[in-house]
Write a structure and sequence with these properties.
The complex is a heterodimer of chains A (about 260) and B (about 800). Chain A is of the alpha+beta class. In chain A, about 15% of the residues lie in helices and about 45% in strands. Chain A has a single domain, classed as Lipoprotein localisation LolA/LolB/LppX (outer membrane lipoprotein receptor (LolB), chain A), CATH 2.50.20.10. Chain A is built from four helices and 13 strands. Chain A has a 13-stranded antiparallel beta sheet with strand order 6-5-4-3-2-1-13-12-11-10-9-8-7. Chain B has a domain of about 450 residues: Multidrug efflux transporter AcrB transmembrane fold (Up-down Bundle). The chains are: A alpha+beta (about 260), B alpha+beta (about 800). The interface between A and B is large, with 48 and 48 residues. β6 of chain A pairs parallel with β5 of chain B, so a sheet runs across the interface. Chain A: This is Outer membrane lipoprotein-sorting protein. Chain A: Keywords: Lipoprotein, Signal.
Chain lengths: ~260, ~800
């Protein structure tokens, strides 16, 4: 009897030594996802944002998003608002950084000026929606620490803890689909007191260029306020061949028109 | 008359048969009632609900308006933690570090959705085209003295902070924790938040002893309600003791006392079962039910026991014989008084305040059960227990003398007494109309309650607890950026700030001004609302993009940016002043703005301010119905229409006297006191019933004239009335020690009313009885020669 326990213990030690830790496995999955999406170059997409409150009252905004893939540092993106009318032409330009806080500029057509936003705040709601800016910005691997939780068939659940102390979250639980290029099916956000705050579900996935999965619908539900925000993307255009010049402050002003 | 007499006889026969049955089957009856009481008690479940929403019925218009506002923005409650450093200076490195720490741990409060403190205030500044939005003091430990000085200067200049988060001297600061309670089970959610908050504050105090910490807000208010319920429920302990002592003093018999105790405990157990079966959650007003039932139910037992023991001790009857006789004599009066009490309590259902429905229904059920147990368990137990014979009391001669003297006093000058009483009553009735409603919920709690003391400190040193909110619309989607709207909103903000009641105003126009200034390189001349709609909209977009988690504008701006929320924090003012203030603000909007901007003032404070009026309006019908029903019961019981009508005077006037005296004592009445008319009517009517029935018996059966009959009534029931009044007074005196004003004021005025009722029944009622019988035969009254005491014993 005693012997068998010892043997068991020995085996477990050995298996532990050889197996990956959950942290390593989680990081590996995140990297795999990043790799699977690598090489899209640049894209452009139109999107509609629908804000819904508890009583079902809605409010809409439309915008165009352009993204330029960069490998040595984070991606660059440009968002130009089409509606509501009062903010038409307003555009934001963001340089994501793998380490440190991002750079962000805003072009305001009413005063025809570019303003730089020096703020570490990426956790506030994006234009009154249930999305925080940090939910929408480029998901660089370096911005989180990882822990693999479990596999449910082809779905892999990974806990991600944000590195930024100013993040609004303690952790996110991300569900990757291993068979579909590690595309993300669902993200659950836990707030600072570690209570479930929001769930983001991706649906209507479409495969572009035989490699890049893009969801046409993002649905973010806030469980604490019962509000929700729907993002509806029209078709992605990967053929735009954008360059760094399209993501300059001059381009920002141009984007508004 | 004959038919009625027959009915009366049949009641007597029924009561006698009932008593004989109970005595014969004493064991089965006792066991069955035990089973009933235990059975009901096993269904019992006592849960407390402290949520202030319980005071409002679902159709309460103020609640509906406030809910509608919360639906538009955010539905939340708050906890205000106020810190007063001993050195009188919030802005030191050490203190700022501590505040940052507490702010960080406040984010861990269950259900928290935002935390506002002086340190995490989102300060906007500009440097050319660079816009900086950041915490006012982040990583305070690294700040230099000069930087801290600058932070202080910025904080004290900030309209959003001053008088809300920081006081003028910079010596007291607040951390406002907003929680979004799911509202699924407030009886569990509120304690959860409270426990977490208290733990956090305790840990903070231990680590940073240089601070005095005070807590207020809606969640602590709810907790105070919750704890008031529990402490008022605990008053039952003292009351039980009083019941035992009083019963023993009156009966001088151990087993009688024990039986009474069993009866009242069974009644309470049954009421607890009723609570469980109906799913009522206890609130401060309804948590006093055990004391109420105890107070009211003990009278039933005392009447039956005192008569029985008298029969044994004075008339030398056997135990069984005495018991049957006592039941025969008391069955009807006990039934009638129970019935009127039940009617009185049930009228609380006419009101608009659910906790009082609960109190009324629980007590009514308890009283109905008390009647049952008094007429079953009590005689059964007395039949089971042995009766120890003791020496006969010898003081009775004096007692009788006293009540006889009182009777003689009244019969000598009925007209004079009636006139004096009526003049006094009229004067007090006039005074009663001078009472004003006041439901300031902070003042529901007396100084023994921490919540009250903390709220008072915060009120005196930092900001107000009361507020009024307005949802000001623009009439179009995105219209809040319309310069015309912004200017009007700004004017409304200014107007509010000019009002003497206002401590602080939070309006979106302030945000618009601040952002506009930052967009123009922090040029102070641009500290005004933008004059171009696109500009305003784009500035707002930019500002919103730079706010952190939990500090967004969603609590101030609705989804499609067509309305904004204006919050005016007020100093402690009375309900009437509150209503007047809100009306003035509503009028200002009507006179100065276009229709979409018109709005009505809402808030929990406003809800409470109007609660008393609403309760009084809705109780009015209930009171009339109670009066009619109870007068009908009296007419039937007395079998006399004229006296039934006359009884309205001694039944109604005590309440008028009570409120008249109250006007001299406090002058302010709250929602809890609205119910006392129906409630006390059901109680004080007992005095009238007893007095009048003895009066009538003397007239009908003994052939006395009015004056003799009055003296007879004094001699036979005078002592009993004083006794039951003493029991009732002690019960309500116990309740009046409650720290919760809805209960303590109600109990205090009830004490006044019950005392007034006894005095009126001893002075005015006999005078009226004599005066109204004047025309009858004028037999020369020789009261001194009467020996009614002898006749009573036959």
């Amino acid at each position: 009897m005693k012997k068998s326990i010892l043997t068991l213990a020995a085996f477990s030690v050995i298996s532990l030594a050889f197996a990956q830790t959950p942290e390593e496995r989680g990081l590996e999955i995140a990297k795999a996802a990043e790799l699977a999406d690598e090489g899209f170059g640049s894209s452009s997409v139109e999107l509609k944002m629908v804000l819904k409150n508890k009583n079902g009252q809605t409010s809409e905004r439309t915008m165009t998003t352009r993204t330029l893939e960069l490998t040595e540092d984070g991606d660059k993106s440009l968002i130009a608002f089409g509606s509501p009318k009062d903010v038409k032409g307003t555009a934001t330009l963001t340089y994501t950084h793998k380490v440190g806080s991002d750079d962000q500029w805003l072009y305001l057509p009413s005063i025809k000026r570019v303003k730089r936003i020096s703020s570490n705040n990426k956790s506030g709601p994006f234009v009154g929606s249930e999305f925080a800016y940090e939910d929408l910005s480029s998901q660089e691997v370096e911005k989180y620490t990882y822990k693999f939780l479990e596999a449910k068939g082809n779905l892999l659940l990974v806990e991600q803890d944000p590195v930024d102390p100013k993040s609004g979250y303690t952790r996110r639980i991300v569900t990757y689909n291993k068979d579909k290029g590690y595309r993300i099916e669902k993200v659950e956000f836990y707030d600072r007191k570690n209570a479930l705050l929001k769930t983001l579900t991706y649906s209507d996935y479409k495969l572009y260029k035989n490699k890049f999965w893009r969801a046409a619908t993002f649905n973010m539900v806030n469980h604490q306020s019962n509000k929700e925000t729907l993002l509806q993307f029209s078709d992605y255009d990967f053929g735009v061949a954008l360059s760094e010049d399209d993501f300059s402050q001059v381009a920002l002003q141009r984007a508004g028109r | 008359m004959n038919a009625l007499k027959k009915a009366g006889n049949s009641v007597n026969t029924f009561a006698k048969k009932w008593a004989e049955f109970v005595i014969k089957f004493k064991w089965p009856v006792f066991l069955l009632t035990i089973l009933l009481a235990l059975g009901l008690a096993s269904q019992g479940k006592m849960e407390f609900d402290g949520d202030y929403h319980v005071f409002f019925s679902e159709s309460n218009p103020e609640l509906e308006a406030f809910d509608a506002l919360q639906e538009k923005y955010t539905k939340d409650d708050n906890i205000v933690i106020v810190l007063a450093p001993d050195n009188g200076e919030v802005f030191t490195r050490e203190n700022l570090v501590a505040i940052e720490e507490l702010t960080a741990s406040a984010w861990n409060t269950p259900y928290s959705s935002r935390v506002d403190a002086v340190t995490n205030f989102q300060h906007t500044s500009a440097d050319g085209d660079d816009l900086y939005v950041d915490d006012l003091s982040y990583e305070s430990a690294t700040k230099t003295d000069a930087e801290i000085k600058e932070i202080k200067a910025k904080a004290l200049k900030e309209p959003l902070l001053l008088h809300r988060i920081i006081n003028e001297k910079g010596s007291v600061t607040a951390i406002n924790v907003t929680v979004r309670l799911p509202g699924v089970d407030s009886a569990a959610e509120i304690p959860e938040v409270t426990v977490a908050t208290r733990k956090m504050v305790d840990e903070f105090k231990e680590k940073h002893p240089q601070f005095k910490v005070y807590t207020t807000g809606l969640v602590p208010l709810n907790t105070a309600f919750f704890e008031a319920s529990q402490s008022d429920l605990a008053l039952i302990g003292i009351m039980l003791l009083i019941v035992v002592v009083v019963t023993f003093l009156l009966t001088r018999n151990f087993f009688a006392t024990l039986s009474t105790l069993v009866v009242v405990l069974f009644s309470i157990m049954s009421a607890v079962g009723f609570i469980g079966l109906t799913g009522i959650k206890l609130t401060p007003p309804s948590a006093v039910f055990p004391t109420m039932i105890l107070t009211l139910a003990v009278a039933d037992s005392i009447h039956i026991l005192v008569t029985m023991l008298q029969k044994v001790r004075k008339d030398g009857m056997g135990k069984k014989e005495a018991l049957v006789e006592s039941m025969r004599l008391n069955f009807m009066p006990v039934f009638i008084t129970s019935l009127t009490t039940v009617i009185g309590f049930l009228t609380m259902n006419f009101g608009d305040v659910p906790p009082f429905w609960h109190l009324g229904n629980i007590t009514a059920f308890g009283m109905a059960m008390a009647f049952l147990y008094s007429t079953t368990t009590l005689p059964a137990l007395m039949a089971i227990f042995p009766l120890w014979r003791k020496k006969v009391a010898s003081k009775k001669e004096e007692k009788i003398g006293m009540y006889t003297k009182l009777g003689l006093f009244v019969t000598r000058q009925p007209a004079r007494l009636a006139v004096i009483s009526l003049v006094v009553i009229a004067g007090l009735t006039y005074l009663a109309t001078l009472n004003v409603f006041n439901d300031e919920f902070v003042e529901y709690f007396d100084d023994s309650v921490q919540f009250r003391r903390d709220s008072d400190f915060i009120n005196d040193n930092l900001t107000g607890f009361y507020n009024v909110e307005f949802s000001v619309g623009s009439g179009e989607s995105g219209g809040i950026n319309n310069p015309e709207y912004l200017q009007k909103l700004n004017a409304f903000e200014d107007w509010l700030n000019d009002q003497s009641e206002v401590v602080h105003v939070n309006a979106f126009s302030e945000v618009a001004r601040r952002v506009n200034r930052s967009m123009h390189g922090d040029d102070q001349t641009y500290y005004r609302v933008p004059d171009n709609r696109q500009e305003a909209a784009q500035f707002l977009l930019l500002y919103e993009l730079s706010l952190p988690f939990g500090l967004d504008l969603n609590n101030q701006i609705n989804v499609d940016k067509s309305e904004t929320r204006v919050t005016a924090t007020l100093k402690n003012i009375s309900s009437a002043e509150m209503i007047a203030f809100s009306a003035r603000a509503e009028e200002w909007l009507r006179n100065n703005t276009k229709e979409p901007m018109h709005s009505i003032g809402v808030s929990p404070t406003m809800m409470f301010s109007k609660l008393g009026f609403r309760q009084a309006d809705s109780m009015f019908n209930g009171n009339i119905i109670a009066l009619i029903l109870i007068s009908l019961v009296l007419m039937l019981a007395l079998r006399n229409f004229k006296l039934g009508l006359l009884s309205i005077i001694p039944n109604v006037t005590p309440v008028l006297v009570g409120f008249g005296i109250w006007a001299l004592y406090k002058g302010q009445i709250n929602t809890g006191m609205v119910i006392v008319f129906g409630m006390t009517l059901g109680i004080i009517v007992d005095d009238t019933v007893h007095f009048m029935s003895k009066f009538l018996r003397a007239r009908r059966e003994l052939g006395y004239d009015a004056k003799q009959a009055v003296i007879y009534a004094f001699e036979t029931v005078g002592r009993a009335l004083v006794t039951t009044t003493v029991v009732l007074l002690s019960g309500f005196a116990v309740l009046s020690t409650s720290s919760f004003a809805l209960n303590s004021y109600m109990a205090r005025i009830t004490v006044i009313i019950i005392t007034a009722a006894l005095i009126i029944d001893f002075l005015l009622l006999p005078a009226l009885l004599i005066l109204s019988s004047r025309k009858d035969e004028a037999v020369e009254a020789i009261p001194n020669q009467l020996k009614p005491e002898l006749k009573l014993n036959k």
